[in-house]
Fold this sequence. Notes:
This is ABC transporter substrate-binding protein. The protein is α/β, with parallel strands linked by helices.
Amino acid sequence: MKLKSGMKAAALALTLVLAGTALLTGCGPKTQEGPVKVRVGEVTRSIFYAPQYVAVNKGFFKEQGLEIDLTTTAGGDKTMTALLSNGIDVALVGSETSIYVHQQGSADPVINFAQLTQTDGTFLVARKPLEGAFDWSKLKGVTFLGQRKGGMPQMAGEFTLKKHGINPHADLTLIQNVDFANIPAAFASGTGDYVQLFEPQATVFEKEGKGYVIASFGVESGKLPYTVFMTKKSYLTKQSATVQKFANAVQQAQNWVQQATPDEIADAIISFFPDTDKAVVRDVVKRYKDQGSFATDGIVDQAEWNNLQDVMEAAGELKQRADHGQLVDNTFAEKAKQSVK
Length: 341
């Protein structure tokens, strides 16, 4: 059926209007996309992870066009389960967990791409103040309240004891059946002569006169990729641009932390620790900063990777050594280090 002349004219006019609109839309500015959301699961909430909170609160992630959805996944097993089941995109957890996944066999391996901390974060705390120089041999025969078996704190602790000629399973009474969250309370109530504690509990105990820091397991066990941002290889491949932006923000935060004072860092991260006195946050930051716990860049080097596996082997937790190139991808951290100033 043919259109009447009036209808033809109307149809033509409509076509021209639509064409003009399309032309103007094509020539005009494109609507900017919103920030890319990255779901991050941290193994625990800790001042030890100060650079991560700096990256959030100083807007470094935002500058990279990223929106960080941060959740505390409470434990290495739960964090890795969340990552493998796509509950999160990126995990902040001990790099030993990527090796455990590798040992079990995985078609989609977990890759370490940006290191955040480079030493163990625990301290040896005694019930009484230190008299004279500390000698590790004093631990022989004592009751030692340690960390959960299989975790990096426990492995770094045992590695240090063995380094000083102490067999943790023969030369002292080792307690390892107390949940991580309950260790400070157990020591405060009288369990153990010495305890291996994270911050801020160690500093809080000192301020309250309940314990005294006499040595650092971080210093004793050396540099290792203690806490690292990691993701599945599939995400790394499909979202490489996002991962690079993430690494850039982490590097910017690391640069800032290296130059900032403990007071400035405490001010930047205090919102993540509303129930902790700012003076405690500052003292904890200073202790970690002074001993070099905060990584200066995200690169996981071969020496650190080897030391990690030495610690795991000494604890009997490593079935077979994992190749650095299989589970570490430094390209993002290396590019971030070169480009972020």
